[in-house]
Design brief:
Blueprint (H helix, E strand, L loop, with lengths): L10 E7 L17 E7 L17 E4 L5 H5 L7 E5 L5 H11 L10 H4 L1 H10 L7 E4 L7 H11 L3 E5 L9 E3 L2 H10 L6 E5 L4 E10 L2 E10 L12 E5 L5 H17 L5 E9 L5 E7 L7 H9 L3 H9 L13 E9 L3 E2 L2 H10 L4 E3 L1 H5 L7 E10 L4 H10 L7 E2 L1
Parallel strand pairs: 1-2, 1-4, 2-3
Antiparallel strand pairs: 5-8, 6-7, 6-8, 9-10, 9-12, 10-11, 11-14, 12-13, 14-17, 15-18, 16-17
Helix pairs in contact: 5-6
Length: 409
């Protein structure tokens, strides 16, 4: 059954969530006058929405994974939808849709989008560039020859990654052979890990909508720097690149190749991260059959008229989503870390940000101070500038503004 926003029948939409919070109000995808949205989580109700999301009341049902079937089958199939934008719920969502009898919206070979080892094996076999990797199957073995084999195969540094995680969780850079051996000792006997060759270059991302076998380009962008290091006080961020640029064209071609290999069946958003090496070659790091996190979905709304998280949720429910169209506008997101013992001065720094026309969303750790042992994201910013080259100048100005830096508590 295909839903319609204009239908008079109310539909209950179950949004599955576990570890990745929603980055937008679900009512933006499913208006309250037509849908009853219930978030089903095996986490905590407080972590269903990212802290900076402004939303009305959200109905949340907490239940263990083995109870989700009974929760979602409590409604007749013709009055229910099941969706997710959580990496840790994609497989469960696909399975539950099958159980209820809803049309398949996720890729048939969903593991190709969830498991980094499976992903790289498929892409490498098709000639799509990926880093060389060593799968630690069936479990990590803390033997000297394991470390020696990894270093001789991959070189140094080595990147340790969980096979099925998101948001850089568990990722570590191992700079020398001693660090590799120490990492193996810490994870001895654990399943689900890989070691990967480090690829130097500029980090980028590319996003598209996949529906009816078509790949519709949305946006391509660059990251400010490595996606690790917030705990050490490094700011994270990224910005869009002009739709007509060579970078964008090559990124979209790479994304199309990735989806052609992993599967275009289904209706979903695809998000691919890659490295542009100094020699110009683009190397795929990972991909996901869901909308991206951080501020990337918001940038897509500015850049192409489509908010990616809203689009991904609606696509799964069979609802219409606009065709992405380049607006000519560029945007950037920044996450600002707060070191231990520091906070932002909302009165002083907020006033200065307002003078510059910058909307800073300060989180609790930014308002009340960081009493933890490492830096934490304390505020977020989305910047928009329509002038040629203006966005880069705006980003540079913000990074050097005194209010950007946290103050002692």
């Amino acid at each position: 059954m295909t839903l319609s926003d204009a239908s008079s029948e109310r539909t209950r939409v179950y949004v599955l969530q576990s570890r990745q919070p929603l980055t937008t109000d679900p009512a933006h995808a499913f208006p309250a006058d037509r849908y009853d949205v219930v978030v089903v989580t095996d986490g905590t109700a407080q972590e269903v929405l990212r802290e900076d999301v402004q939303a009305g009341p959200v109905t949340v049902v907490r239940a263990a994974r083995d109870e989700w079937d009974s929760v979602v089958t409590s409604m007749p199939p013709d009055a229910v939808e099941i969706v997710t934008n959580d990496e840790y719920c994609v497989a469960a969502c696909a399975r539950l849709r099958d159980v209820v009898g809803l049309p398949r919206r996720h890729p048939t070979n969903v593991d190709g989008y969830l498991d980094k080892v499976v992903m790289k094996c498929h892409l490498a076999a098709a000639g799509v560039p990926v880093p060389q990797a060593v799968a630690l199957d069936p479990v990590v073995v803390a033997a000297r020859d394991t470390a020696e084999r990894a270093v001789s195969t991959l070189g140094l540094p080595v990147v340790a990654k969980p096979r099925r995680e998101a948001n850089s969780r568990g990722v570590e850079m191992l700079e020398d052979a001693g660090a590799v051996q120490a990492w193996l000792a810490r994870h001895d006997g654990e399943p689900g890990w890989e070691l990967e060759a480090f690829v130097s270059g500029d980090l980028g991302h590319v996003n598209a909508i996949v529906r009816d076998g078509r790949v519709e380009p949305v946006q391509a962008g660059r990251y400010l720097g490595p996606l690790l290091g917030v705990g050490e006080g490094r700011a994270l961020g990224g910005w869009t690149v002009p739709a007509g640029s060579e970078w964008a064209a090559r990124a979209h071609a790479l994304n199309r190749a990735v989806v052609d290999v992993l599967g275009t069946d289904g209706d979903f958003v695809v998000h691919t991260e890659f490295v542009a090496r100094p020699d110009g070659r683009l190397v795929v790091l990972e991909t996901a059959a869901r909308a991206p996190g951080a501020g990337v979905s918001e940038l897509a709304l500015v850049h192409a008229g489509v908010q990616l998280e809203i689009a991904n949720l609606r696509l799964q429910a069979g609802l219409p989503v606009p065709v992405p169209e380049p607006s000519g506008r560029q945007a950037c997101w920044l996450w600002l870390p707060v070191p231990p013992g520091r906070r932002w001065d909302a009165a002083r720094d907020g006033a200065r940000a307002a003078e510059l026309g910058v909307d800073v969303r300060v989180r609790q750790v930014g308002r009340e101070g960081n009493d933890g042992a490492s830096a934490a994201v304390g505020a977020s910013v989305v910047l928009v500038n329509d002038a040629p080259g203006g966005l880069a100048r705006t980003v540079d100005a913000v990074l050097n503004e005194p209010w950007f830096r946290a103050h002692a508590v």
